[in-house]
Specification:
The chain is an all-beta fold. The chain has a domain at 36-68. The chain is built from no helices and 4 strands. It has strands at residues 43-45, 48-52, 55-59, 62-64. The strands form 2 sheets. A two-stranded antiparallel sheet has the order 1-4. The relative contact order is 0.18.
């Protein structure tokens, strides 16, 4: 390996986001009732993290539950 200038690369550990029960759990205010009478009455969001060569990138889309 030295002669050919080869280097061993360690295996990346898999990311595990589950940390058990941390903080408080928010109350379920919608109770699975997504019917709305006007736009922007009920909104939802989630956060996704991407690893890039330039660092971490976060995506947080907002979805409107109103359907005409």
């Amino acid at each position: 390996m030295k002669v050919l200038n080869l280097h061993a690369m360690p295996k990346r550990r898999m990311y595990k986001s589950y940390r058990g029960t941390v903080g408080r759990i928010a109350d379920n205010l919608l109770n699975q009732t997504f019917n709305t009478s006007r736009p922007y009455e009920k909104l939802g969001t989630d956060i996704t993290q991407f690893r890039t060569p330039f660092g971490k990138l976060y995506l947080s889309p907002i979805i409107d539950f109103h359907t005409p």
